[in-house]
Structure formats: structure tokens, C-alpha cells
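Posted in: Structural Biology > Protein-Ligand Complexes

Title: Requesting predicted complex, flavin-adenine dinucleotide in pocket

I'd be grateful if someone could produce the C-alpha cells for the following input. Sequence and ligand are given below.
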Amino acid sequence: MHWSRWGDPAKARPVSDELRGLVEAFLGPVVERPSVELAEVELAPVALSDEHLAALGALVEREHVHTGHEWRVRRTRGKSTPDLLRIRAGDGADAPDAVVRPGSHDEVAAVVAWASEHRVAVVPFGGGTSVVGGLVARRDGYAGVVALDLRRMTRLLAVDEVSGTATLEAGLLGPEAEELLAERGLLLGHYPQSFPHATIGGFAATRSSGQSSAGYGRFDAMVLELRVATPVGELALGTSPANAAGPDLRELVLGSEGAFGVVTEVTVRVRPLPERKHYEGWRFASFAAGAAAMRRLAQELPQGRGLPTVLRLSDEAETAVNLASPDAVGGGASGGCLMVVGHEGTPDQVEVAQGRTAALLADAGGERLGEEPGTRWAEGRFDGPYLRDSLLDIGVLVETFETVTWWSRLDELYAAVKQAVEADLTEQGTPPLVLCHVSHVYETGASLYFTVAARELDDGVAQWSRTKRAATDAIVASGGSITHHHAVGRDHQPWLEQEVGPVGVELLRAVKERVDPAGVMNPGVLVP
Ligand SMILES: Cc1cc2nc3c(=O)[nH]c(=O)nc-3n(C[C@H](O)[C@H](O)[C@H](O)COP(=O)(O)OP(=O)(O)OC[C@H]3O[C@@H](n4cnc5c(N)ncnc54)[C@H](O)[C@@H]3O)c2cc1C
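-- Reply #1 --
Done. Output follows.
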């Protein structure tokens, strides 16, 4: 992962004349906004003492404790646009003092216990792709901050082919996990857009949802067992496919963002590798018409196995700039709204599912565009974030956020959020382009994923923080959730009490106090 951009440095693309022209037509004149060099990022001196570092070295071997400039910069914050803007400006104020890389559950447990005793804050660090400030620990009152990097923990620990389960170490990246499973003819099927650079532990810790969640389910729905190292000991959860042994405590760990402990092992349900993948495009006259068709799919097809594997619907604006195929700006399905529908499975399963879905979509007013738009989307499905960096280079701020609500409220939520974002940025003197797609559907509702582009003001962080406030206020006022899959982190925390109520917040605090009495686990993240 590049230290100040998304992904593989080899895939970074300079801004083409075409893109520059398009941006200027939509947003006005642009200016170059280069990043500082890696060596210019300013870091505070390492706060941890030599004794602290030696003690950590004794727990995980000295070669796995790093305090060098690049190690610290690369574990500073995550990959939200404000994170990128800060690091591009040379602001390394949130850098950890040390990066510690354990190789096993026992080493993680030892570090966590030691940190609790010495009041050192621990930030579990997976792929570092958080977009909600989940990697920015509070520093006050702590002897220092350690980034606990899980990327040495990359083993497939067990496979139960009879039951269809696999146990994975938390530091495996998405593609690494799929590769190990594929050797056994198996598939996990979790493909968030961050898939190439995010980890199994991160997926669990954020309740991630992927582009194929319609068919394969959200990540939290895939998790069967969890092994967690907390400051007060090990938590091992999940003994059976389903049970009535009190509240399901796995739910306390899923989405806990490192605030209660470190997820070290995750047992997931797996499926046979699909023999066939088929993606296609459909056009609907309007976003509302497309959403109504999606609702029919979600409610009329047999529950749990009827939905297509991939299902997403771009609104008119997103269809127009063709972010449904994020690799190519411009072109695309002309007019209306593009829906991408994908089916995966055996040839028979795909044929049956495709036919059944097509009949329903046609009946709901859709026009079949054939395989090309779907295949093009699938080919570029992980490339969109590279475009954000290119746009930041020419002073265009691009950020995304998401929410979810019941079908009955979807239209209202969409209109209110779009209006709030447009009004706020226009008031700031930078009228934006606001794009949206339905990214995930359920029988009872759907999630909306917004992409916003605007000319960057002198202080892009303050500019976006104001707009994000306006957007989240509008989400809450319209009955949406503050997050469908990005998690809470620090950025959504001010609205958490509105989401779960004061008693809900007290429950979270109580759990934290019991499992993390010294408050060293990712302080400031999730729990207010
Ligand atoms: C370009 C881009 C696209 C994205 N697309 C999607 C998407 O489609 N769907 C989606 O759900 N999300 C998406 N995200 C958000 C992000 O990728 C997810 O939240 C992902 O699950 C984070 O995984 P990670 O390994 O990078 O975790 P990190 O970013 O390293 O950590 C995320 C949080 O979890 C904690 N954590 C990490 N590992 C552990 C562990 N083992 N134990 C305990 N706590 C831990 C961290 O402390 C932090 O609070 C996207 C982000 C970017 C930048």
C-alpha cells in the first residue's frame, strides 16, 4: 500500500486531459495540489522509552518492533479523504510511537496484557483501510501508542470440508485468504472495494459488507467463531451453527473496532468455488424505478438463496459519469439508471437465477443491456479508489459515505442527504457533484452509498468535516443509520448515542470497562 495514496503504487494514474476537461466542465478550474515527500512528513519523537521498546522486543522478538520513520508514517491513520489530505500535507501527528508485529495469538495476548499494565495504547492495525478514523487512538494519559500490526498472522489454520467452515488468521488480506481457500476448491466471497488491501480481522472488527453481499452475505453473517485477545484474557466464541445459550456474544466482537480486544482468528463459513460468473447491465428509467425493482427482487425471490450475487443500482448522476464502472469516467449507459446484476455458482444455478431475475426485472420496467456493462464493472470493481488520488492531485476533493434504511424511507433519505450535501458545499462556494448507488439490499431495506466531488478549498479537511456533519445530521433526521458498513471509528462517534440510545452507550462502556480496565484498547474509537 502506498503511504499517502490508495493501493499499489504501480497502479497510480496521472490525470488525463480527458479527466481534467471533464472535471473543469463540472466543477470549475482546477489547480495542482501535490503531496509532500515521505521524508517530509512530520512526526513527534518516539514517546516510548528504551525500556518499553526492549520489553516489547522480548514479547515479539526485537526485529518485529519498529520505530523508523517509514514504518510509523505507514501506520498513521487510515484511508479516508481527510486522512489522505493530512498525510499529503505532511501531518504525521497521529503516528504511532512504534509498530509491533506479533506472529501468533499468544504474542498478541502478551502484548495486550503488557500494554494494559504499562498504560500503553494499542491500535490493532490490519490493512489500514479504515475510512472512519478507526486507527486514530487518543494519546492523552498514555505512555505511548503502539500500532499492533497483524500482517504476520496469515495462516489458514483449519478447514472442515464436511461442515463448510475454515479458520483464518486475522492478518490475511482478502486475496490471500481467497487464494488459500481456492487451493481447497473453496470460496469465502467477501469483496468490499478495499478487498485487495484489507484483512480478515479488519472485516470482522468493522462488520464489513462487500460488493457480493447480496448473494454471499455480509462479513458478520459469515463469521462462526472468533478468538480474541483481551487485556483480561482470551475470549473464544462460537460453538455451534446456532444455539440458545444466551445472547450471542460474537455480536459484541463484530464491529468492536479493536476497542475490546484483538481478533486473532476467525472461523467463517465457506462455499465451493463458483464454476461460472455472469454479470450484466440493466437500465431503469429512474433511480426510484430501479430501487422498486430491487425491492421486488429482495422480497419476492426465495429468501436466502434467490438474490443475485451482485446487485447495485446507480442513480442518474452516477450513471452519467459511469462510476458503476469506476475505471472509466464518461460514457456508459446513456440516460436512466444503470443496475449491475451478477450471478455466481454452478452453470445450472447461474442459468436458473439469471432467468428468474431477468423475468422479474423486465416485468418491473427494466431494459436488459447485455453482459458488457456488467463485465466492465466487474473488471474495474477494485480500481475506483485510484481515481480519488488523481483527483486530489488536481485539487478535487472526493469522499464517500454510506447509510441504510427501510425500503419505506429510502426515497426520503436519498433526497434529504443529497440536498444537505449540495446545500452545504454550495454555501462554502464549491458546488459539488453528488453521486449515489444502492450498494446492498435486504428484504426490508437497502443501503445508499454516496460519492461527493467538489473543488478543494484551502483547508479541505475543515471543508469536508463541515459537509460530513451536514450529511450525517440529515441521515439521522431521516431515520437512516450512521453507518451500514464503514463502522463508527472516531468520525461517527458523535452520533452513536442517537443510533443506540444512552443505555446502549452505557452498555458499550460497561463492556469496555470489564474487558479493558486500563482503557488501552484503541482509546477514543467506537466507545464515547
Ligand atoms: C477505497 C476504500 C474502499 C472501501 N470499501 C469498503 C467496502 O466496500 N465495504 C466495507 O465494508 N468497507 C469498505 N471500506 C472500509 C474498510 O476497508 C473496511 O472497514 C475494512 O473492513 C477494514 O479492514 P482493515 O483490515 O483495513 O482494517 P483497519 O483499517 O486496519 O482497521 C479498521 C478498524 O478495525 C480495527 N481492527 C483491525 N484489525 C483488527 C483485529 N484483528 N482485531 C481487532 N480490531 C481490529 C482497527 O483498530 C480499526 O479500528 C473501504 C475503504 C476504502 C479506503
